[in-house]
Amino acid sequence: MQSITVFCSASDAIDPDYKHEAEVLGRWIGTHGYRLVYGGANGGLMEIVARCARENGSPVLGIITRHIIELGRSSRQPTELITTDNMGDRKRHLIEQGDIIVALPGGIGTIDELFDAITTKMLGSHDKPVIICNTGGLFDPLIQQFDRLRRQGFLRYDRPDLYRVVPDARACCELLGHENR
């Protein structure tokens, strides 16, 4: 069984459109026979994607730090849990455990995870697809910054498959379905 790692927000204080994106992707993961790998928190898009994946038949692997558990922020959705001592180990496990990496909308934590996935791919540690769901153009400034870094010579590794950008979760699901036939 292939696994899809999803990076996303743990915040509940976000627009319902973003929550809908997590529902769409979670349902697709569950109904298409993938295992979900995610950050294991009990809020925001994390809880939604995990609940929807699990309700639709997906095994769910949560990867969470001891600190987040101590804060009472761990989800009950995972069918399996990996506990780490720090965020670095958590990110490493998130990347290692997935065959495909998807970034849904999120904040600093999501961007940090996305940077690690892209950097480790750039350095040859993995060759997994990295897909950015750019719902509502949320990641436009980040993508523009990547392009600027490339043009200015700071991003020397110019590889067209380093990451893919899609406009929303539906397009992400279509891409996942197309690439895994």
Automatic annotation (TrEMBL):
Keyword Hydrolase: yes
Cross-referenced Pfam families: Lysine_decarbox
Gene Ontology molecular function: AMP nucleosidase activity
Catalytic activity reported: AMP + H2O = D-ribose 5-phosphate + adenine
Keyword Hydrolase: yes
This enzyme's EC code(s): 3.2.2.n1
Gene3D superfamilies: 3.40.50.450
Transmembrane feature ranges: none
Protein name: Cytokinin riboside 5'-monophosphate phosphoribohydrolase
Family per record: Belongs to the LOG family.
InterPro entries, A to Z: LOG (IPR005269), LOG_fam (IPR031100)
Gene Ontology CC: one annotated term: cytosol
Enzyme class of the recorded protein, top EC level: hydrolase
Biological process, per Gene Ontology: cytokinin biosynthetic process
UniProt keyword list: Cytokinin biosynthesis, Hydrolase
